[in-house]
Amino acid sequence: MRMQITYFDEEGKQNTQETLVLAKQRAQELGIRTVVLASSHGYTALEAARVFSGTGRALITVTLSAGFSELGWGMSADELAAVENAGVTVLTSQLSFGGGVEEAFGGDKSPQSIIAHTFYCFSQGMKVAAEIAVMAAEAGLIGTDEDVIALAGSSEGADTAIVLKPACAKQFKQLRIKEILCKPYIG
User: Fold this and answer.
1) Phi, psi dihedrals of residue 96, rounded to the nearest 5°
2) What is the pLDDT of residue 99?
3) pLDDT value at position 137?
4) Disulfide-capable partner of 128 in 26, 142, 152, 181 (CB 3.0 to 4.6 Å)?
5) What's the pLDDT at 95?
6) From CA 77, how far away is CA 93, in angstroms rounded?
7) How open is the CA angle 70-73-74, to the nearest 5 degrees?
8) Could you tell me if 157 and 44 are in contact, meaning their C-beta atoms sit under 8 angstroms apart?
9) pTM attached to this predicted model
10) Is residue 145 part of a domain?
């Protein structure tokens, strides 16, 4: 089997449109019904709603819990309303790979932090894409019995998309990244 991976010259928001188009194309080819995406302020979610319009794909955006609002990460009421009005399901949740109680006590030596830093070896978007799939599975918004596409980025927008079989946190070792559709080339 021969597959193609798109590598972007730089991380960032400028890759969002191409990431979404690649994700849409692969979802259609594989018959994947659900796309999970990260969105801090709604930009990526609204762009995804536009790109995936009329495809019948379920879009779920994952945004950060209130604990991250002091960092400027999290949707305002107006941003949330716009995303929901575009037909995108919104999950606001605690991170699954860190940022919680375990970091308060274990710092970067917690299992969650080790997992996060391992994914960071690929890219920030790779860590977030895998993480939001676990978060959505934990919330019961996606099953663990069928593949989804997850996409995320580096700071803003989307620059990473993967096909994966999600898992809940307790079954994390069953998560399988099946395909990398795109990611930044980090050298």
Assistant:
1) -95, -20
2) 62
3) 97
4) 152
5) 77
6) 16
7) 105
8) yes
9) 0.92
10) yes
